[in-house]
Write a structure and sequence with these properties.
InterPro entries: DUF58. This protein is an alpha/beta fold. It has four domains: 52 residues; 107 residues, Immunoglobulins (Immunoglobulin-like), CATH 2.60.40.10; 35 residues, no CATH class; 175 residues, 3-Layer(aba) Sandwich (Rossmann fold). Helices cover 30% and strands 28% of the residues. Strands 11, 12, 15, 16, 17, 18, 19 and 20 form an eight-stranded mixed beta sheet that branches. A four-stranded antiparallel beta sheet has the order 5-4-8-9, covered by helices on one side. About 5% of the residues have low confidence.
Length: 413
Amino acid sequence: MSGLKALTPRGRSFLASGVAALLCALVLGEQDLLRVAVLITAMPLLASLVVARTRYRLACARRLSPARVQAGEDSTVTLRLENITRLPTGLLLVEDTLQYALGTRPRFVLDRMESRGVREIDYKVSSDLRGRFPIGPLSVRIADPFGLVELTRSFTITDTLVVTPEVVPLPPVRLSGEYSGGGDSRTRSVAAAGDDDVAPREYRQGDDLRRVHWRSTARRGELMVRREEQERQSRGALLLDTRRHAHRGEGPRSSFEVAVSAAASIGVHLSAEGLALRLVTDQGARHVVDTGQSWSLLDTLAVIRQSTARSLEHGVGALRQGGGEGLIIAVLGALDPEEALALARLRHSGVTAVAVLLDLASWDGASWDAVAAENARAARSVLTGGGWRVLDLPAGASLAGVWPEAGNNRSAA
């Protein structure tokens, strides 16, 4: 019955034609027509029986190279099929499952796979949209040589392609940050220019003798050991405004997508500079990125979505509770003076604050009214007066072009 259900339109046409010819032959008493009717009817039935009783055993593996790409870049998917039975296969129709954002489903035809044979198939996928996209499962359709019967078998394995925001290389800019240490050190503010030499101290009961500092011991006349010093690490916070009402436009070129790309670019740049970063949104703290682990930030930003929040209250609260961060960078959409004032109060002595303000008028066009424009100017003035370094990012502009202004401390209080 499974074979009969798998009849293709051609197979059903053969079967219907055979039955019709058989009835005509019986009515007219034509022996030759009867023989033809039996042949036409038997072909799809025999094909169904053969295909249904065939027991192919195929192994499938999928490889993504690379498994993480930026929006708009290609990834190569390699399918590896192996016939692990002693019988050669017939015609195989291979189709992989993709989400619409990755393009049309790839289809391939394999004429025959010998016993223990292996076939590898490559195809490319890409997406202009961020996200995590499952690839698979793979389906294999088994057909007879005449195309009368077709059975579908599916594998269960799937793989995930991570499409991250576009990352723009940024020029080096000197930014000060808060360096936190451990052991015998204390938290202190320094520029991103390295650590001081570690000073020895007096020997204490239980100290490891391998830490004895012999030069200081000879000079002081008493046993001295090197201090236990953890590597001091610069820490900062990155605020991303994800409020839906604070952004304009749709699709990959909307202000929200530009903001996500800017946050990704800044995060990757600062992580490469040795900064431990904390990602915060208007919903509160989201993620902590260790030095050199920018891929985890990109994975988080790959799936971030717009929120329905109306204010930055939770984000400002999360920044305030963080503490010990010498650098705050905010990527902001529409901002009113009250929200700007709350952000301005986060900056104090020893803290560098940078705001990337999206020029929403360049996205909004004619719908950007005078009230919104006045609020934007007032918010910018409040941030600048609070010692923030403000960067304006209009539609179509590259963050790399305005990023050097982040090193301009003329507005710093």
